Fold:
Amino acid sequence: QVQLVESGGGLVQPGGSLRLSCAASGFTFSTYDMSWVRQAPGKGLESVALIVRRTGLTYYPDSVKGRFTISADNAKNTLYLEMSSLKPEDTALYYCAKRGEAYEYDYWGQGTQVTVSS
Structure:
């Protein structure tokens, strides 16, 4: 069955960097669009990065553009999110999510906590 397992979260000071990983299994990783989605305390879900497999293009909201980079290693079936210049408002639970045939997110990982604080 499909499994997505995130890792790499933690406590980091403002201005610092982190790399999140998402190990994928149970589906053909190289053919499905993948996203990183976060949920800050008391707030809704926000997609912070998307990779479209057919084109290789990536998309980011203005809130993280230039600071976050999504990438995928098809040989390792692993999705990454490189985060730099982190801000306290980046504090959230970060999920990786697989996008299904109808562009909905059909599978989610359990999440990894990122806390940006001095």
About this structure: The chain has no helices and eleven strands. The first strand starts at residue 3 and ends at 7. The two ends are 40 Å apart (CA to CA).
